[in-house]
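Hi again,

Forgot to attach this to my earlier email, sorry! This is the prediction with nicotinamide-adenine-dinucleotide bound. I've pasted everything inline since the attachment limit keeps bouncing my files.
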Amino acid sequence: MINTKFERIQNNLRKNKKTWLITGVAGFIGSNILEKLLFLDQKVIGIDNLSTGFLKNLKSVEKVVGRKKWKKFKFVKGDISNLNDCLKVIKNVDIVLHQAARGSIPKSTKDPITTNKYNITAFLNILTVSKDNGVKSFVYASSSSVYGDSKLLPKVETKVGNVLSNYALTKKVNEEYARLFYKLYDFKTIGLRYFNVFGKRQNPDGDYAAVIPKWINNVKRNKKLIIFGDGRTSRDFCPISNVVQANILAGFINLKKKNYVFNVGTGSRINLIKLYKTIYKNFKNSNYKKKIIFKNFREGDVRHSLSSIKTIKKLLGYKPVVSFNDGIIQTIKWFKSNSNV
Ligand SMILES: NC(=O)c1ccc[n+]([C@@H]2O[C@H](COP(=O)([O-])OP(=O)(O)OC[C@H]3O[C@@H](n4cnc5c(N)ncnc54)[C@H](O)[C@@H]3O)[C@@H](O)[C@H]2O)c1
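Structure tokens for the complex follow:
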């Protein structure tokens, strides 16, 4: 499937080069955006404090794009919760794609102060320096978690519930700051409420890993899988290419109104049992001894999640070009050929 609007914008970008800043560039989503922008011959500055990101992700991008394109990238190891570090990277930037955050809900329950520092203080710093340094477009990662306890399906941008975690609260605060920066300073922002993103370079390790890389790795290593709840919990699992597309569209397209929040998902949902079956079927590990352990529901977890992508389709021309199934096949292939992850 091809998104012709996105194709047109990519051709336009190749001729009309921009300078982009990616925060959280060594993370899963940041490194995938970096790869795409370098393929489009853009100049990119990236900052990361390596709290959950990895230099190996940047090495992997360098390998894929080659030396010539890699030269258009400048990496700064720094922490954007420190204002001075933000000032080091913001000069002459056209578009900011802010991805840096502490993404885990359980971590935010255990340690709300660090989550607040990385997700709110850091957000306000980078938003302020962007406004003060002539950034034309500020795009930031929000999250479907802001829908909280709303039972409405699919989730539409205008109807959120009460948040269920400290993490979700930080994303809600980001959206409020962005809205106010438009009202108070006429500063243009676009928030992208990602649903469950998955794909290459997503960290499979540790207690806080996202379900898809963790399960793929467990099938690879012949380890048991844990399902929290009854397995009927469902999510709109969104392949990474669609999220990369949404960021570039949001950064480049000049919308009339200057403050938006859009859902980024596929517009369909899968439950955990079906997810497990899809991974198992496509992994083709005949040695794998199916072992699922069911545990209690986790605090702060939302039961069902499904995006309405009507608005982002209409206003940005977003079109999810990679389906859930193809995304799983591509991700398994990547995890199989990257034996060190
Ligand atoms: N992955 C998903 O499914 C998902 C869903 C909804 C929202 N999001 C949001 O998308 C963004 C990217 O998530 P990801 O999955 O790539 O996570 P990730 O942990 O792989 O990437 C986040 C990156 O930000 C860096 N970082 C954190 N705090 C920083 C700071 N103060 N200064 C500099 N760098 C800092 C980390 O080291 C890491 O490299 C986050 O804002 C996350 O909340 C992700």
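The chain has one domain: 4-201+237-266+307-323. The chain has a mean pLDDT of 95.

That should be everything now.

G.
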